[in-house]
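debug: dumping io for the single-chain case to check the tokenizer round-trip. Nothing else runs in this session.
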Amino acid sequence: MCHESKLKRFVAQLKKQLKDGYNDCKTPEDSGKIINDFHLKRICNLLKDHGGEVLHGNGSAHTDLKLTPTIVLNPKKDS
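debug: decoded output
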């Protein structure tokens, strides 16, 4: 959670950290491996009905299973 007045700066810094610290993780191969297909699908499905706005990453991971670090703004509280 982040206060609205600091959101823009927070998101910019978070994106910078993903780029600098994780080579921007543009492909699933750039990030760590998920232990098996069951857990990959389980994690990717978290991006299915979040109800928010994807600011960075792959918001379609629930369909293409290409999981990358993803920033979601204003997800539903129960997501």
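debug: round-trip ok. Residues 7-22 form the longest helix (16 residues).
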